[in-house]
Every structure is written in C-alpha cells, then in structure tokens.
Specification:
By secondary structure, the protein is of the alpha/beta class. It contains four helices and three strands; from the N terminus they run αβαβαβα. The protein is elongated. The protein starts with a helix and ends in a 5-residue tail after the last helix.
Length: 150
C-alpha cells in the first residue's frame, strides 16, 4: 500500500507541475495578445490604411472592415483608391468594355468622394502591371506623394 501512495503522490506532483506549466504558457499567450492589442490600438504608433478599388462590392467590404476596426478601436489612417482608369481615355477610341468600366468607376468614385471625403489620401491610376517589386512601389509612392522623400 505504501508503494501505491508514493506513486500516487508522485503523479499528483507531476500533475501540478504540468498544470503550472500550462497555466504559465496560457499567461504568456495572454500577455502577448494584450501587448499586441495595445500596439494595434495606439494611435501614436499604429494606423491602418485601406487600399480600395472603385468597385461596389469592394467598397461594401471595406466599409464593413472599417466598422469592425472602429469597434475594436483600431485606428484607420485613411484610404488609397487604386486602379483608377483615367477618364480622359473615355474620349478616345477604346473598346466598349473599357468605356463601360470607366463609366462604372465614375459612379463608384463619386460614391467614394461622398462617403470617404478627406479620408482619401490619394488615387493611383491603373498601371500596366501589378505593383510588385521595389521599382513599382517607388512608382506608386511617387504618384501618391509627388516624389517626396522621407
């Protein structure tokens, strides 16, 4: 019987050690989450910028995301409107598809100006290719900030 009691006591101590380790790990995770939350909601350290394109469903989804950010007090620094087809193309001989896209974007751009107003930081035109790599990022920065350096 004594041997049984020793094994039971050892197992109980091991169980307590295991529980302490699990509790310690959970507290570590909680502290990390709280720390990240403090940074993400600190307006002096963090701001998120939404990049939108002038299409109805994208704008609906972006507004929902912005509402969610507001609910959790995550600061939104503004909006960048991307892939804007220049209206000047509408006066040229272009395919009907492109003419229709310009007309569709015009309505969405009016909606963006009305609902987001001064929160829009800038407009980026439709470029010949996706923005990947430093040269294209530099080009977009130049379009947004006019060649200003930090």
């Amino acid at each position: 019987m004594r041997e049984y009691e020793e094994v039971a006591a050892r197992m109980k101590r091991q169980k307590e050690v295991d529980e302490d380790q699990i509790l310690g790990e959970l507290q570590y995770i909680r502290n990390r989450i709280n720390s990240a939350s403090r940074i993400l909601t600190d307006r002096t350290k963090t701001a998120f910028f939404f990049v939108v394109i002038p299409e109805q469903m994208i704008l609906i989804d972006t507004k929902k995301a912005a509402e969610l950010f507001a609910r959790f007090e995550v600061p939104v620094g503004g909006y960048i409107v991307n892939r804007v087809i220049p209206e000047e193309l509408g006066g040229q001989q272009i395919p009907a598809y492109l003419r229709n896209r310009i007309a569709m974007q015009k309505g969405e751009l009016d909606q963006i100006r009305q609902s987001l107003g001064s929160q829009v930081i800038g407009y980026v035109p439709e470029l010949e290719r996706d923005v990947t790599g430093l040269p294209m990022i530099e080009r977009v920065a130049d379009l947004l900030y006019g060649g200003a350096t930090l």
